[in-house]
Specification:
Rossmann fold; 245 residues; 49% helix; alpha/beta; 7-stranded parallel β-sheet; binds NADP nicotinamide-adenine-dinucleotide phosphate; 9 helices
């Protein structure tokens, strides 16, 4: 992968940040995308200083088509090509169905699902010309098992899995593979905010008896991004400690 370029959305912290660092460690130039300009640029500078590769920090709201277009233009201006896209940016806005506001549904679907659609649409234009590409979508175990309070989030992630399979079929002939990684319970800011009681209950459901780390997820993403993984497409790798099999 050395010398390739990866765009990772939502990569100033959490799973995206660790993934960006793992790419950087392997000599891949990384584009750090975040909805906040300052944190995107800070993360890009830190990763550049630590790993000695080229980075670019960009502000973009992945649910905004114009932001996404500009983000790809800026990335191409600097790196000329993009081989890897990780659709990682995601949010939760939990509520039981009866109390869920339209805005909570829309925000989650727009960022988690439409965001991946917009970024993939730009990416395949570039990757089709290269006749090579790796698109990796970050789904979730809840797409497969459901989760009370997450009707918006689980639907967005299930949509992402279906989108993964469709794009895998559409772009196989161009040398582009499209796969998903479905994390279980991973320790990040997203899960830190859950009540202790919920965390205790979750732990009981995990045969490996621990929550996952961002590295557990990043390792699966790196594997799918390797040139050697070119015969794997339309698949979901579950990284959940056995929570769902
Ligand atoms: P996180 O720590 O909350 O990080 C999410 C990142 O996405 C942040 O950098 C955030 O930016 C960014 N972001 C939010 N909205 C955005 C937007 N509209 N445009 C661009 N960037 C945006 O989350 P995480 O736990 O690392 O999760 C990463 C992915 O894994 C998500 O798709 C999540 O659904 C999925 N996942 C996580 C878990 C888990 O247990 N943690 C489990 C299954 C799946 P700011 O920092 O500026 O807000």
């Amino acid at each position: 992968m050395k010398g390739q370029t990866a765009i990772i959305t939502g990569s100033s912290r959490g799973i995206g940040r660790t993934t960006a660092e793992e790419f950087a460690k392997r000599g891949v130039n990384v584009v750090i995308v975040d909805i906040d300009d300052t944190v995107a640029k800070e993360a890009a500078e830190e990763i550049k200083a630590k790993f000695g590769i080229e980075t670019l920090g960009l502000k973009a709201d992945v649910s905004n088509a114009n932001d996404v277009k500009i983000m790809f233009e800026e990335a191409i201006k600097k790196f000329e090509k993009i081989e890897i896209l990780v659709n990682n940016a995601g949010i939760t806005k939990d509520n039981l169905l009866i109390r869920m506001k339209d805005e909570e549904w829309d925000a989650v679907l727009n960022i988690n699902l439409k965001g991946a659609f917009l970024c993939s649409r730009e990416a395949v234009k570039i990757m089709s010309k290269l006749k090579y590409g790796r698109i990796i979508n970050i789904a979730s175990v809840v797409a497969f098992i459901g989760n009370p309070g997450q009707v918006n989030y689980s639907a967005s992630k299930a949509g992402l899995v279906a989108m993964t399979k469709t794009l895998a079929k559409e772009y196989a002939s161009r040398g582009i593979t499209v796969n998903a990684v479905a994390p279980g319970f991973i320790q990040t800011a997203m899960t830190d905010k859950l009540p202790e009681k919920v965390k205790e209950e979750m732990l009981k459901m995990i045969p490996l008896s621990r929550f996952g780390t961002t590295n557990d997820v990043a390792n699966a993403i790196i594997f799918l991004a390797l040139p050697e993984s070119g015969y794997i497409t339309g698949q979901v790798i579950h990284v959940n400690g056995g929570m769902y099999m």
